[in-house]
Structures are given as structure tokens and as C-alpha cells.
Design goal:
Helix 27 links the parallel strand 28 and strand 29. This protein starts with 21 loop residues before the first helix and ends with a helix. Helix 3 crosses helix 19. Strands 6, 7, 8, 9, 10, 11, 12, 13, 14 and 15 form a 10-stranded mixed beta sheet that branches. It is elongated. Helix content is 40%, strand content 18%. The protein has 28 helices and 32 strands. It has 930 residues and is of the alpha/beta class.
Length: 930
């Protein structure tokens, strides 16, 4: 009976599954981490070491997560896990933004509330219930992504401790004179019935009718005498895209330096900026016109015009805000509807009229259009202008117009009394603070600098209920505002004990310190009804979280959010921090782009191109989503599609298979007993460790620069090119056929073990689940923590592995192998050989190659994975050979190896049959079998 030599081979053996089955297996690791309290364990491991504090930007708790929030949380998790394994103490407190209009709107819809028919406290309780519900939904979704955090102790902006700290931040800003109340035009959403901040505005394309309106001159100050027949047919022509604001017109602004023409056309006279005249006439369809006189804008200042449909004058004023980019150079000026209009009218003591109410309806000050919704009034006003010959022309235009980011409706500009934070009071300090921060990408610094430099004062009041009340009182008699250290302390103390609902539950006298008195002598007060902008909530988190949570530090080492937060959270945090502390609340700010589909289009319901992260996890697993994040250059917009996910699944499979192959070949390896010293390793094993060292360098550099896609490409390339296609392929024979405990085999296992250990650690921040799975199947050094890969330290570079001579030598060998591989492939195609082990390779080398090949010829049978090798002089080549056009001085001939096939190693050898005991084995295998 013949012997089964297959049983004498060291074939791979591992229970590590070939198929990942991530959707089913990942929850098992989530339970493991929860049971072992992985978050606190890793904190304890690095306690007392340098800290790395990434402060979490709070998502809104108003629905489930989407790919954008998944991307954000995974990026944070990758960074935190990297720093943790590098030996930093990395406390990570997740947060949620739980106040504001988005939650109000969803709560109203979900609970069928009528805001004006329930008590404020009842309404607020419903909003709180809704927010906490979706906070839990999001928390579980983030956990499912494999994100490690202090999930049991998050910061929540509705928590009473947070609210109390926010009141203190507000109070400190007020104390420094940065908080004031004023009548100013603000972004106003008629649908939401509240003021909005710049960060709550989105621009979208809007098609509208732009109109050219004639304002009849009433008093020309004698300037047009002798030029015009009558003032009754003399007009200043304005241009506007917001017809509904005409009832608010009180002036017409000219640029003092512009040249204006008094133009005669069709029996009428028009005053228009000369630079814009031809275009205006073209739109109006007027071909014949003549400039009768020219004036500088400043010469026309003080003239009066008649309002086209109201019994009111419109005065000619001047301002540098008037440009020649569009229109007529004569700017319709309504101080109740625009910031520039408001400022220029203030210089002339022109009063403010706001003929639109908080729901968007025109008031009695709009005359015959009172009661009309502002958008519907446009057509009626245009008809009126036509009927009175005050409409010179009109044309449809498409322009970018501000919309409410919540309801997506167009907003209006409306002057109202609001509370503001005076940015002017600390603008320079804020810009200086920006320059102390590291911005990634670098263009973020210029972007936020320009935004802070150009922004107006921050409107911080909102006419809603669900939020932190503005802690200001008013005297019942003289109506003067009351805010000081004592009142702020009283409100902060109340909120810390009972939460901000108490503002609605208690009278002013029950909140204020006993004996509080107004300057006028009155002891009775009322409370402010407005709440704070939610950006003030989250913008105070640096104080409410970093300063109050044990283990955290101020400033944070990093803020990481989407690029839209340069005008949102990054900015609101900067402003409150600089105003109260004189410094930025962060050392580094990293931003990522938006998630788009495979064609670069924004995801939307109408396009049907949205992808739910939950669906990705169900089909592929969270690790594939994490790999998508790491593989993307997130500093620009990040593409995702089913095809991209399929491609990543294939990449994942190759990485997993590399790990599985190594696991299968170290099943009997104990790193504490079987490790071979570096000096005794085979040269090829040393080469593999040198490549590993290079990989660690690249990966370290990628992590340090937060360029995770570079890390992804480096690891993928290492697994496929350096390992699977080369090293692991070549050492297969040594692993399988050598004696199990031979130094040759142990040397290969030593190198493989070190490679796998380093690889799994470097993959751990990204492939959180898979790296943990591999770790459970690995043997471990006594210095490692076997419980979890996350409790171990980052692989270190080993200078001993660097060897320039070795690199140069093996670069030449790899080039040689590539040439031979091409020749073998051709021979397979031509049916000369089947498997490469059937082959004999003959190389014909010129003088530049011969000596080098001769020095390594004993290794080449193994390197080429063939059965025989012969080296000859270049000119000895026969007619049948392969020559690579890119490699000079080499010719390769492939023939069938002489001898018989060894039953055990499958190599063709003339020694097969010479051993009586093992007649079917080559002499090498016969010696191993014994």
C-alpha cells in the first residue's frame, strides 16, 4: 500500500473563515466590546499619557443617520483609534444638538401639535421627547458602524448642565458689551416665522422677474432746468428683482463717483448710469435715445422723487455700495429689507418701514396691497406699475437666492428688533485667532478668515420656543433691559437645577435675586420671549463640554466636520471662544467634502440616487463602509455607488485573504518560542521585513497627515503586489514541504507573523471588525494584549530592517522574475508547459547581467517557481526565446524540465525514483520524510 505523502506536508490550517459574512458577524464583536467595556479599558491603558482630544460636533437629533454623518463619525473614529494605539489618552465624548426649528417641525408633525394652542412647557416636552428618541436611534446607528465612544455619557445640548454653562457664556459676552438689541434687517423665514443666521441660509437657483421702475422727479433742486420740458416726464429708473419690497422704498441710492446721464427717449427723460445705459435701453427695446446732460452721482443728491404707487417721497442719496455690475446704477433702497439699505439710510436719518409681517403678508403700510402674501403681491404690483406708466421694462432672470435650510423656502429680508452679538467688537481678535490654528486642507483658513472678515453682526435671537431662552429681563415700567452678573448667576443656577423649562414655569420675580430693582425704581420685570440661535448652543460646547467633563482639555486638539461648518459650528465656536476667552477653542480643524453619487451628483430623493448606510451594512457590513471612507480623498466631494462598493468588497477580499493565508501557515507557530532571530532569517524573509518597514513608514505618514486614502493604497498594494504575488507565492514551497520545525520554515513563519501583527494593527482603525476577528485567531507574543487588537500599541519601525544593498539586489531579482513570468505565460499559451513546475528556465545573459545572475542562480528555481534553471551566455541563445523590449541583455527560453514529478512537492526532478524507500519522491522530500 502506497504512503499518503499529502499528510506529510504542512498544509495551511485555520478556522478563520474565508467568507467574511460581516453583516452577521459584526454584531458579535459589538457585544464583545460592550461586555468588556472597550472604551474605558483603552482609556485606562493610556491613563496619564499625553492626551488627544477630538471634540465631537453635535449632529441634529431629528432623524436617522445618513452617509454624510456616517462618513464624519467614521473619520473621527479612525483618527481617535490611531492616536490611542500610538499611546495617547483619547477620551471621546459624542454630542447631540437637540434644540431648534428642525426638531420643532418634526415634533409638530409626529405628535400632531398645534404650537399656538399648547402651553410652552407642554410643547417643549414634546420636542424633548422627539429629540431623545432620535438621539437613541442615531447612537445605535453610530455604534453599529464600529465607532468607539463614551456612548453612555454623551453631551446633549438640552441637558440642564449644558444649558447653565451656555447661559454663562452668554452672560460673559454681555458683560464685555458684545450683546445688544437693535432694529436691523435680518434673514427671515415667513414659513418658520423666525429670524435666521447666515449659517442657516442655503442658496439655490430662483427664476424671477426683474423690473425697471420709473420714479417721477418731484424736486430736481434746479439741476435739470433748461434741459427737460417738465419734471412730470422725468424719471430716475431703478432696477429690482424683489418687486414685493417696493412698498418699503424710501430712497434711491446713487454712487457718488459714477457718471449719470439725463437721457431723452420716446418723449421722456431718464436718469441712468452711463456705464449701464446701453444695456437698459436694449432690455427696454429702445433704439433711439440721446444723452442730454451728464452729472456725477453726488450732484444729484437730495433730489426728491414720487413713490410710484404710495403717497410718499423717495429721496436721492449716495453710497459706495452702488456698483455697475447690473441694473441702472440707481438702486431701489428700502431700509426695512436690506442690510446695505439700512446702513445707508441711517446716515441720512431716514426712518425704517417694514411693510411685511412675520408671516410674510404685506401690512397697511403697503397701501392697496395690504393683506397679500409677499410672493403673490409681485404680479399685482407689476400690473399697477404698468397701469400708471411706471414700468419701463421687465425680464426673466435666473439668480442665486437665499433659502431657509430647514423648510427650503425662499427667505425675505426684514428689519425687526433682534438680539445680536457684535462681531465688530472682537473681529480682529477672531481673525488673529484663526491664524493660530492648523487648517486641513489649508484653504480652510482663507475661507473662514474671509467669512469672519466680511460677516455682519450675529443675530442670536429666534422667535420660537424650543431652545435656550435669552436670559434677559425687562422693567415693567420703563421697559429697560436688565442683565448683569447677578441675573446671569440666578438664571444659570436655576437652569442647572431645573433646566430651561423653568423659564416658562416661573415668573421673573421667582427667578431674580430678592430685591432686584430697575434704575427707575421699579421692582417688577417681564422675561424675554425669544430663544437663542441653536448655533449659539453648539457654539458654546467648547465651554459646556471641554471645561466641565473630566478628562477633556480646552482647547480641543481637533474639530472635524464638513466644509459647510466654516460658516457654521467652526465659526460659532470660534466667535464665542474668542469673545469670552480671547483664543480659538481648537488647535486643528479638519474638514471633509459632501457625499455624492458615482457620477458626482448631489444625492436627492428626486434623483433617486440616495444610499442608506443601514442598507450598505445589511448587504456588505460596516467594515466595507469604513473602507469606503478610508479609500476616499475626503477633502473633496466623496463618491459612492453600488459599483464603488462592489469594487471595495473585492479589495477587502484580497486583504482578508492575505491575512487568512498567513493565519493558515502559522497555525503551529508560537512567537514566544519559535521566532528566528533576524540574523538567521533567509534573505527573502529579510526582504519581506524591509518591505514591511517601508509600509509602516508610508502608513504612519498617511495617518499623521490624515490622508487615509494613501494608507489604503499602500496596504492594498503591499498585500497584492509584495505579498500575494511575490513573497507568499515564493515561500509556499518552503512552508509546505520543509520539516515542520525546520529553521527555514520557522524563518518564514517569523516574517509572516511579524507582517500579520503589524498589518492587523495598522488596519484596526479602519477595518475595526475584521482586524478584531483576525486578532482572535492569531497566536500572540507575551507583550501583546490578546483580548482586543485595540488594546495594543502601534507597530514600530525597525532600523535593522533597512538594507539598501538588499533592496537593490532584490529589485533586480524582481525585474528578472517579471521577464521570466512573461516567458512562462507565453509557453503556457503555446502548450509547451502546463504548470510552471513543469518548466526549465534557461536565461541567456550579456556581460552586464551574467555575473549577477550567476551569483544568485541557486535561488532562482525557488524565485521563478520552476523545476530547473540554467544560465548561459547571451550569444548562445537559439532561435526560440523570449526577449523583453524593456529589459536589455536578457533572453529567456522555456522548455520541459527533465525527470519525473515528485509526488510530494510536484517539482520535476531527475532524483525521483532513486530512493528505494520513497521511490516517488525527489531526494529533498525523501530526506524530509525520513
Amino acid at each position: 500500500m502506497s504512503e499518503d505523502y499529502g499528510k506529510t506536508l504542512n498544509l495551511p490550517s485555520t478556522e478563520f473563515p474565508m467568507r467574511a459574512n460581516l453583516p452577521q458577524r459584526e454584531p458579535e464583536f459589538l457585544k464583545k466590546w460592550e461586555d468588556m467595556d472597550i472604551y474605558n479599558k483603552q482609556l485606562k491603558k493610556n491613563a496619564g499619557k499625553p492626551k488627544f482630544v477630538l471634540h465631537d460636533g453635535p449632529p441634529y437629533a431629528n432623524g436617522g443617520i445618513h452617509l454624510g454623518t456616517a462618513l464624519n463619525k467614521i473619520l473621527k473614529d479612525i483618527i481617535i483609534k490611531y492616536y490611542s494605539m500610538k499611546g495617547y489618552e483619547t477620551p471621546y465624548v459624542p454630542g447631540w444638538d437637540t434644540h431648534g426649528l428642525p426638531i420643532e417641525q418634526r415634533a409638530i408633525k409626529e405628535f400632531g401639535l398645534k404650537r399656538h394652542e399648547v402651553s410652552p412647557v407642554e410643547f417643549r416636552q414634546a420636542c424633548k421627547k422627539f429629540a431623545l428618541k432620535y438621539l437613541d436611534v442615531q447612537r445605535e446607528a453610530f455604534k453599529r458602524l464600529g465607532v468607539r465612544a463614551d456612548w453612555d455619557n454623551p453631551y446633549i445640548t438640552l441637558n440642564k448642565e449644558f444649558e447653565a454653562k451656555q447661559i454663562e457664556v452668554f452672560g460673559e459676552m454681555a458683560k464685555k458689551g458684545y450683546i445688544y438689541k437693535g432694529l436691523r434687517p435680518v434673514y427671515w423665514c415667513p414659513d418658520c416665522e423666525t429670524a435666521l443666521a447666515e449659517a442657516e441660509i442655503e442658496y439655490a437657483e430662483d427664476t424671477t422677474l426683474s423690473i425697471y421702475v420709473k420714479f417721477e422727479v418731484k424736486d430736481d433742486k434746479g439741476k435739470f432746468t433748461g434741459i427737460v420740458d417738465s419734471l412730470e416726464n422725468t424719471y430716475f429708473v431703478i432696477w429690482t428683482t424683489t418687486t414685493w419690497t417696493l412698498p418699503g422704498n424710501l430712497a434711491i441710492s446713487l454712487n457718488p463717483e459714477f457718471d449719470y446721464g439725463l437721457v431723452k427717449a420716446d418723449g421722456e427723460y431718464y436718469i441712468i448710469a452711463i456705464e449701464l445705459l446701453d444695456n437698459v435701453m436694449k432690455v427696454a427695446g429702445i433704439e433711439d435715445y440721446e444723452i442730454k446732460a451728464k452729472f456725477k452721482g453726488e450732484e444729484l443728491e437730495g433730489m426728491l422723487c414720487k413713490h410710484p404707487f404710495l403717497d410718499r417721497d423717495s429721496v436721492i442719496i449716495t453710497g459706495d455700495h452702488v456698483t455697475a455690475e447690473a441694473g441702472t446704477g440707481c438702486v431701489h433702497t428700502a431700509p426695512g429689507h436690506g442690510a446695505e439699505d439700512f446702513e445707508v439710510c441711517k446716515k441720512y436719518d431716514i426712518p425704517v418701514i417694514v411693510p411685511v409681517d412675520d408671516k410674510g403678508y404685506l401690512t397697511s403700510e403697503a397701501g392697496q396691497f395690504a393683506g397679500m402674501y409677499y410672493e403673490k403681491s409681485n404680479a399685482a404690483i407689476i400690473e399697477q406699475l404698468k397701469s400708471t406708466n411706471n414700468l419701463l421694462a421687465s425680464e426673466k432672470i435666473v439668480h442665486q437666492y437665499p433659502h431657509c435650510w430647514r423648510c427650503k423656502d425662499p427667505i425675505i429680508f426684514r428689519a425687526t428688533e433682534q438680539w445680536f452679538a457684535s462681531i465688530e467688537g472682537f473681529r480682529k481678535e477672531a481673525i488673529d485667532a484663526i491664524s493660530t490654528v492648523k487648517w486641513i486642507p489649508e484653504w480652510g483658513q482663507e475661507r473662514i478668515t474671509n467669512m469672519v472678515r466680511d460677516r455682519g453682526d450675529w443675530c442670536i435671537s429666534r422667535q420660537r420656543i424650543w431652545g435656550v431662552p435669552i436670559p434677559i429681563f425687562y422693567c415693567k415700567d420703563c421697559k429697560k433691559e436688565l442683565i448683569n452678573d447677578d441675573t446671569i448667576k440666578a438664571v444659570a443656577k436655576l437652569f442647572a437645577e431645573k433646566g430651561s423649562d423653568a423659564w416658562y414655569e416661573y415668573d421673573a420675580k421667582d427667578i431674580l435675586p430678592e430685591g432686584t430693582k430697575c434704575e427707575c425704581g421699579c421692582f417688577e420685570f417681564t422675561k424675554e420671549k425669544d430663544i437663542m440661535d441653536v448655533w449659539f448652543d453648539s457654539g458654546s460646547s467648547h465651554s459646556a463640554v471641554l471645561e466641565t467633563t473630566e478628562g477633556l482639555t480646552w482647547p480641543a486638539d481637533m474639530y472635524l466636520e464638513g466644509s459647510d461648518q466654516h460658516r457654521g459650528w467652526f465659526q460659532s465656536s470660534l466667535l464665542t471662544a474668542v469673545a469670552t476667552k480671547g483664543a480659538a477653542p481648537y488647535k486643528t480643524v479638519l474638514t471633509h467634502g459632501y457625499v455624492v453619487d458615482g457620477e458626482g451628483r448631489k444625492m436627492s430623493k428626486s434623483l433617486g440616487n440616495g444610499i442608506d448606510p443601514e442598507d450598505v451594512i445589511k448587504e456588505y457590513g460596516a467594515d466595507i463602509l469604513r473602507l469606503w471612507v478610508a479609500s476616499s480623498d475626503y477633502k473633496t466631494d466623496i463618491r459612492i455607488s453600488k459599483d464603488i462598493l462592489k469594487q471595495l468588497s473585492e479589495v477587502y477580499r484580497k486583504i482578508r485573504n492575505t491575512c487568512r493565508y498567513i493565519l493558515g501557515n502559522i497555525y503551529d507557530f508560537d512567537p514566544n518560542k519559535d521566532t528566528v532571530s533576524y540574523e538567521e532569517l533567509n534573505e527573502l524573509d529579510k526582504w519581506a521585513l524591509m518591505k514591511l518597514n517601508g509600509l509602516i513608514k508610508k502608513v504612519n505618514d498617511a495617518y499623521e497627515k490624515y490622508e487615509f486614502h494613501m494608507m489604503f493604497h499602500a496596504i492594498h498594494n503591499f498585500c497584492v503586489v509584495d505579498m500575494s504575488n511575490f513573497y507568499l507565492d515564493i515561500i509556499k514551497d518552503r512552508l509546505y514541504t520543509s520539516r515542520a520545525d525546520s529553521k527555514e520554515r520557522r524563518a518564514a513563519q517569523t516574517a509572516m507573523y511579524e507582517i500579520l501583527e503589524a498589518l492587523v494593527k495598522m488596519l484596526s482603525p479602519v477595518l475595526a471588525f475584521t482586524s478584531e476577528e483576525v486578532w482572535q485567531f492569531m497566536p500572540h507574543r507575551s507583550t501583546n494584549d490578546p483580548e482586543s487588537v485595540q488594546l495594543n500599541y502601534w507597530p514600530e519601525l525597525n532600523e535593522k530592517y533597512e538594507n539598501s544593498e538588499l533592496k537593490e539586489k532584490w529589485d533586480r531579482i524582481i525585474e528578472l522574475r517579471d521577464v521570466v513570468s512573461k516567458a512562462l505565460e507565453i509557453a503556457r499559451t503555446e502548450k509547451i508547459i502546463g504548470h510552471s513546475l513543469n518548466a526549465k528556465v534557461t536565461i541567456f545573459a550579456d556581460e552586464s547581467n551574467y555575473d549577477f545572475i550567476d551569483s544568485i542562480k541557486k535561488e532562482l528555481v525557488t524565485v521563478f517557481i520552476v523545476s530547473d534553471f540554467e544560465l548561459k551566455k547571451f550569444d548562445e541563445a537559439s532561435d526560440k526565446y523570449y526577449e523583453d523590449p524593456d529589459v536589455k541583455g536578457l533572453r529567456v527560453a522555456i522548455s520541459t524540465a527533465s525527470g519525473a514529478k515528485c509526488e510530494r512537492c510536484w517539482m520535476i526532478s531527475e532524483t525521483v525514483g532513486k530512493n528505494e524507500k520513497h521511490a516517488t519522491l525527489c531526494d529533498r522530500c525523501a530526506e524530509v520524510v525520513g
